[in-house]
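Teaching note: in complex prediction, the entire set of molecules is handled at once rather than each chain in isolation. The prompt given to students was simply: 'Predict the structure of this complex.' The entities are:
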Amino acid sequence: MSQFSQVVLSGLATGSIYALVAIGFTLVWQAAQTVNFAQGEFVMLPAFFVLAGMSLFGLSFGTALLFGLAVSVVVLGLLFKKLVAEPILPHGGITLIIATMALGILLKESVKEFYSAEAQPFPSIFPNDPIDVFGAVLSMQDILNLAFSLAVVVALTLFLNRTRTGRCMQATAQNPAVAEILGVNVKRMILYTFLINAALAALASFLITPVYLAKFSNGETLGLIAFIAAIVGGFNQIRGALAGGLLIGVLDNLTAAYVTAEYRAALPLVLLIVIILVRPQGLLGTKEGRAV
Amino acid sequence: MNVRMRTLSILGLVALAIAAPIGQGNYIIYVLTSWLVFAIAAMGLNLTLGYAGQISLAQAAFMAIGAYVTSLLTLAGWHWILAMPLALLACFVVGLLLGYPALRVKGHFLAFVTLAFNTLVFLVLRNEDWLTGGSYGLVGMPRPDFGLFSTMKQLHFYYFTLGVTVLAALAMWGIVRSPWGRAFKALRENPIRAESLGVDTRRITLLAFAIGSAYGGLAGALVAPLVQFIEPGSFGVAHSLRILLMVVVGGSGYFFGPFLGAAVVILLPEVLRFAEGYYLIIYSALVIVMLVFVPSGLIGVWGRLHEKFWPRHEIRADLKEGAGLK
Amino acid sequence: MSMPVLSVRNIEKSFGGIRAVNGVSFDVHKGEILGLIGPNGSGKSTLFNCILGQLPPDGGDVSVNGRNVSGMRASDLNRLGVGRTFQQLSVFPKMSVLDNIILAGQEHHGSMLSRLFGPGDAGLTAEAEKLIAFFRLSHLRDTLAGSLSYGQQKLVDAAMAFMAGPSLVLLDEPAGGVNLTMLAGLKERLTAYNAEHGTTFVVIEHNMEFVMSLCTRIIVLSEGSIIAEGTPDEIRANQAVIDAYLGG
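The expected output is the structure of the full assembly:
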């Protein structure tokens, strides 16, 4: 029983981090028709910004995290939008998808060549002590990762639903033409979406890298899992991506613990294919939301 | 360019391909052969991407299926010429099964499904070692022997591959020139109009993807006897991406784009040895820059230069073909 | 009277709370040229899209030659003999005029396999050339459709709708953006085609003069319902129509 709750909890913890990545991916897809195939690399990179901040500028870990967040928002949000998404989108969605694939290679290879090809240890934000909850031994790090990610999701949802800017962003995602007529600064809202995506990716990076170590190739699986979480959950809302992320996190851990470790990585893939076969709009999606 | 000029220049290119390996060492001949093999894989993907407008990230997985089927059969004593059609058929059928659900949904779902599929294939190849040899792969596949013409020597194998490439290109030419090809192009330019004219866009897209996958299988059927050693690592997602970029860099939707693209990816690194690890960085950065300014690829670059310096010249016939990406 | 070529029964369609089409019914008989007019926002285009399966209607049925086609895919509808044009220009710009026209007919010829292994033109070159000549575009046969003038592209667009020998053709604003000389030619060609082949037309159009001189019968829509129906002369004199246009 204790093992089971630990397996589920750590699944939820990882899943909530996947959800952060999936939500950012969804927001950008909806607001700017940008399917970002470099999303996994967007999660791999911020951890290296932090490491670089500590080793090159001698920052403390806490300051380096803020530095990493800021650099991520500028590079993966602002520069990504200005230099890649904006100029290429007029050439068509497929062209942009391919450009993001090339961007993924560029980021990955750059880290490999300019930083290191070896996995780097990355300090954990939260203590990794086991604690005893009702007789089950649980990892403190898992609990705090889960709590922190959920808090970010709640904050983001409140921002999108309760603030004027958030509602303008939603209007832009649903119908940019109408939003424009209603006086929404569509361009600015799209920029905000890119910045939020970069920030979410950076937070996910800080939470997940202590577990996986910082390695240039981390993005390969992370990106794929984020796409799958977004598609499985249903694209139209944040809660779809959240549900998809949590589901994959838990199923992944259960499979590894009780079924097969060899085919652990296959589970999300099979889930994706099954979902597309039987419920293409996703678990929580509606039909309209799918006509991206 | 008129028909005669066109035929002459194509014959010229074939003559060049025949002359290229003469007097070269085995390694250079090997590199040239892989260029042809990847050109076949890219040619197939060009049909899916350039003509039918769908992203497939599983071309390496189809190469894997082609290579493993061919290897297992030839190791069991079959002749290559019998094993290869089965490899093609396997890829075609898997392409249909995979594309059917993915193409029912709007958006770029084929990209995600094929990405997942490529990862799955990799896992199966690595884990099912009773069949695939696991991480150690399969070794010692015989090269085909046609009685009077054995392909054991590197140079002979190159000419064999060249022959297969020419046949594959002719078949592709036939497809592109057929009513199917016209439907592919119509689909790319205006799917809603095509549908209203009776084109079953779902079916035609699926067929383009399945045929493209079969070309991946053919490339795989050639890789097995070329390298005589296959393992899962040679068919990962990164390789699918590499083939996709070949198509885009060469010029997707142009008939000769894949040959040019494969040359850039396979031959150029050999010339630019000094760049070593930075090659991929420079390459991927250049791809992004190219997509910003000339999304129609290198053939599109050539077209622009041509228009700039010889503006009155009639547009080349194969330029009319391509429409770049959507 | 014989069976109608197109029969529309109680089509309804709402967007959110707004009723765009409110239970519209009408029949079109062989050889008729029916005009569908109405002020902006009267529901013409929505109705058109519901008939053609582009939009799923909330209720009602559409039959073509007695066969219920509600919810049918556009390609299947086309194979049943329904041709159409779109409001926006819809040619294939990077294909020649000839290829555009052949494409419009090839899916009606032979089997899937014969279209792969058979001749590249599906045996349609002669027929396509005849149609191109009918629309007086022969000199542009090998030109890329995208490099033609707007009016010429409109002609190619219309010609494509006829290539498969349809029994019913729906034209969505054929006169939109076409200059006066071209317009006269287009009308004359459509009338000639109708006379020669007995093909039934349904036309949505804003250009009153064009509709009045082309159509044999006209239906007027306002706020999603039919408010008048009759010959062009009757419609011209109808007070409800005048009110709808002036009021709208």
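Point out the following to students. The longest strand of chain A covers residues 130-133. Strands of chain A lie at 130-133, 136-139.
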